[in-house]
Amino acid sequence: MALADVRPLQEGLPFGVRIGALTLEILEDPAIRKEIDDLFIAHGMIVFEDVEQSDEMQLALSSCFGPLKEHPVKAVSRVDSNRLPGVIEIRSRRGQGVVEVEGKQLSHWLPWHFDHCYNDELNRAGVLRSVERVEEGGITGFMDGVALYAAFPDDLRRRIEGREVIYTLSTQYDELKFGRPEHYAMIEPKPSSPEFKAQAASMPRAIHPAVWTRPTGEKVLHVSNYMAQGLVGEENAGGDALLEEVCQTINRLGGTCSYHHKWRPSDMVIWDNTRMLHCVSGNNPDEERLMYRTTIAGDYGLGRWEQAPASPATADAMA
Fold it and tell me: What is the pLDDT of residue 317?
């Protein structure tokens, strides 16, 4: 048995596919599960269309790609840790976490980034579905790091290759240091619990390469605008200028090697977190939006802490 409905994600894009007609019964077939994972390895992301919108289906799809991993930040809301291990809730609440971008106020806007950049380990992937949608905005963008590397200006690519980027768990909009839009301001901060602040303060800085090579041979440009603090050994005006140029070039190329997904009630999406960047367009601050995400375990093995965790208790908090 083979998948009956596999299509390109979008005409002209060198990454991504769409898969339709999946059911829980079909996902019991080991050959189908392997075919789905092989497509994911080759294409970097999959949009699953017209699938059952249930916790069971999200977990069944997620299990095609490996075991689930708990989110490394303990303060992130879990859906139901006993029944649905590894499923987190991403909610945009009215009037919270508001930023002004190019003259428009938006809730839950996020710049180009990869998940868990502030950690020494990256998760392999995430599976996302929309539980509560908004009419306008709420679009998730995805950018392929392989295509991004190929599209980068030759001189800039040579200057950033071989360098490493430092990241911290800094989520507030006024903490965005690199890649800011030209007209940008925080209007209302994101909610931040004492537990989150304590964990963020206890974590050492994480380091990841700006460019890495996949086992299949392709080079990936993999820089997160969000939470970036500087370049290793070059936290100075020259290093900051280079990283800013890289982040602004990522912003500029977002229109040429990216895909922007408007959520439908029947969609789920998976993306390769070691290959892809993603962003969120934000939505009207008067509206609410709710997403459920699973986190797939796995790591590319190239991240590290700048310093060892201070104590066993700190290490446990970051597991």
Answer: 36
**Which residues contact residue 58 at a Cβ distance below 8 angstroms, ignoring those fewer than 6 apart?**
87, 127, 129, 268, 292, 294
Q: Which 3 state secondary structure label does DSSP give 62?
A: helix
Structural domain containing residue 303: 6-317
Take residue 240 and report the two structure tokens written for it: 């900051």
Instruction: List 170's β-bridge partners, or say none.
Output: none
Q: Which two tokens stand for residue 225?
A: 């605008």
**Helices marked H in 152-232 — which ranges?**
154-160, 194-202
Query: Would residue 194 count as lying in a domain?
Result: yes
- CATH code, domain carrying 255: 3.60.130.10
Q: Domain tally for the chain?
A: 1
Query: Regarding beta strands 45-49 and 17-20, do their DSSP bridges make them parallel or antiparallel, or are they unpaired?
Result: parallel
Q: What angle do CA 81, 35, 298 make, to 5 degrees?
A: 40
What's the pTM value of the predicted model, to 2 decimals?
A: 0.91
Distance from C-alpha of 273 to C-alpha of 290, rounded to nearest angstrom:
21
The answer as to whether 111 is a domain residue is yes
Q: Nearest CA to 84 among 303, 300, 292?
A: 292
| 223, part of any domain | yes
Tell me phi and psi for residue 4, to 5 degrees.
Answer: -90, -20
Does any domain span residue 244? Answer: yes
Paired tokens of 158: 């040579």
Residues of the chain with confidence (pLDDT) below 50: 74-75, 312-319
Q: Which residues of 253-283 are buried (b: 16+ CB within 10 A; e: fewer)?
A: bbeebbbebebeeebbbbbbbbbbbbbbbbb
